[in-house]
Structure formats: C-alpha cells, structure tokens
Amino acid sequence: MRIHSLQHVSFEGLGSIEGWARDRGHVLTATRFWAGDPLPAPGAFDWLIVMGGPMSVHDGAKLPWLAAEKRFLRATLDAGKRVLGICLGAQLLAEAMGARIARARAKEIGWFPVTLAPEARDVPWLQAIPERWEVFHWHGEEFDLPRGATRLAGSDACENQAFIHGPDVCGFQFHPEATSASVQDLIRHSGGDIEDGPYIQAPAVMLGDEPRFLKARERMREILDALAGAGARAGGRAVR
Predict the structure, then answer these.
(1) Cα-atom radius of gyration of the chain, to the nearest Å?
(2) Would you state the torsion angle of the CA atoms of residues 171, 239, 30, 34, taken in this order, to the nearest 10 degrees?
(3) CATH code for the part of the protein at 2-228
(4) pLDDT of residue 233
(5) Are 55 and 87 a contacting pair, CB within 8 Å?
(6) How far is residue 45 from each of residues 9, 26, 27, 40, 50, measured CA to CA in Å?
C-alpha cells in the first residue's frame, strides 16, 4: 500500500506508524509543510495519514499552506480515499467534514484513559480493546462529531476523542502512535504547554513507564492492521 502522510512540524512525525509500515512492506511518502514539500497527485497514494502539530485549524492567516491542505483534504475525502487523522489531523479531518473545532474545556497532556462509546462495540476492530483504554494526549482544542460519523471514545476532559465515518475515515484526538522518542520531542519543542491542570502530567510521569509505550505500540499495530484491511471503497463519495 502507498501511504502518504501530511506532517506539519519536524517534531511530530509518524511515531510507531513508521515501524509498522516498514514491517508490512508499505511505501511511505510525506508532505512536510515546514519544509515546503508539495502535495501529491490524487492517484499517488492509497491511504492518507494527517499528523499533529502545535498550530490550530484556525491559523490560516499565519500559515499560508493551511488553506491548500484543507482543500486537498476535502478533495481526498470526496474521492473516497482512506484517511486517518491524529490530533490536529483529526481536527482538520472533522472540519473538512463540516464539524466545529473549538478550544477544549481543559488541556489534556499526558497519559489519561478514554472510555469506549457504546456504539463503538459494533466496530469489529475495537472488540479486543477494553472499555477504558489508557492513551497519550497532547491537545488544547477539540472537534465536534462530524455529521454521519460514529463516536468511538471520550474522556473525562473531552467528549469526542475518536470517530469513524464508514470503513475508510477515522480520527483520533489522542496520540495512539506515541513513542518515548516522540513524547520527548513534544516536551522539548512544546514544553511551554505544560502547566498546572487536572489533566496535565509532568514530563517525568509521561516518560517514566516504558511498558506504557510498548503496550501503545502493540495496540497501534493492531489498529493499523484493521484499518488497512477495511472494506474496499465503492468509488468516490462525498462525506461532508
């Protein structure tokens, strides 16, 4: 499979997704907006993965490339491509589908559980995931549920943490791809976000339990295998 990623800053890459893709023999390409890379042609990829970043979906006045990315994402959805959005990527995906993006009630930074929604139990690839699932977060904004999407999970601080739309479109507000190295990069570059708050952990707590990262990696591999094997698309369709 040809997997193309949209990466907004140098310190938020694919994390554990990269190792999974290499192990499975998938071809990886990327648009690195901070480096001025071009967007790909529509037929150049099979799966689009939109990664995170410290900016907001509303920062178009400061980031000229953001408008082009949004147009590209809407066209990708309308073409019926497979799309996965993570953190900022999920917010961009939800906005492209007509949902509102706003400041969250509270920042979430660190390891906190999400609770699967009752409707998530109808999703085959979530059957093996426990009702409460500890994941890594780093966000201060959140998305409303897009029209026609199924809510998969929420947390104490954020009602909408994950959604799917049909077999091919999925968004995670949290960071299921987190590795020890990727979290260290976030702390190094975005450490100013860490302040006193009920859902904010100290760096030592975020990094102090290596088995958390091993468990997250294995769970992410299971999810990616399931999403990569999702049902074939029946031609282009609009999801807005």
Answers:
(1) 17
(2) -80
(3) 3.40.50.880
(4) 36
(5) no
(6) 21, 11, 9, 8, 13
